[in-house]
Hints:
Helix content is about 25%, strand content about 20%.
Amino acid sequence: MSTLHSDSDTRTRSISTTSYRGAVHETDELKKFRYYWWKTGIMHSKAKWDEATLPYELASDVSYDAYVEQTDKHNIHGWWEWENGTVRVVEFPSGFLESCVGAIVQEIYDTTRNVKGTYADILSLGATTTRSHEFAKEAHASFRPNQKPHVNAGGSDGETRPWPNIVVEGAHSQSVAYLLSKVENYWLKPGRAHDAIAIKIEPTTPLSVMTAWHYCINNRTNIGALSPLI
C-alpha cells in the first residue's frame, strides 16, 4: 500500500482501494468537503474519498479556461477530467502508480537516447492538458517528436498544436474498463496518438501487481478493432 498520507492542510494523499466499501449516501456536508479539493487543491481529511465511486462529479458549470487555470494553479494533473462544463475525479493520487509511470517513462528515454539532438528527438510533454470539442483529458505522461509540425485544425489544444505520438495512462482507483475506454476512444482516435501504454495497479496488499497494455494504431484485428499487447 502506498505510504503517502495527508490531512486537510496538505495538497494530496494516496487513497487505498483495498479499504473501498462502496459509495455512501452523500450528504450536503460530505459534498462540501469533497468540493474543497476543487476550490483549494487540497483533499480534506473529512471528505471520505475512500468511499467515493469514480468517476466522481466534483464541480459543474466550469468553463474550459477555468478548469485549466485551476489544475495549473494547484498542480492537479492526471486526476481530474473536464467534459462540457463538468469536472470529474477519475483517479486518486498514488505514489506507487507514479513510480510505475516513472519507470515506463525512463524506458522510453533509454530507448530514444540515440536520437537525441536529431530531427527525430523526442519531447516529453508530461501530463499536458489536451482538448477535443467538449472533452479535456491528461495522460500521466506523453511524448512527441520535437519537430512535429502543427496541424491545420483539430489539434490537441482544440486548435493547431500537434497531438502526442505516445501516451502513458495509469490507473489505480479507476476501473480497467474506464482506463481502456479512454485509451481507445480518446487517445487513439484518428489523427491523435500512435501508441498508448495503459497500466492498471491491482488493489492488492501490498501493492505489487501491475497489468500493462501496449496499443499501436497499426495493431488491429481482422475487423479493424484495436488489439493491444498485454
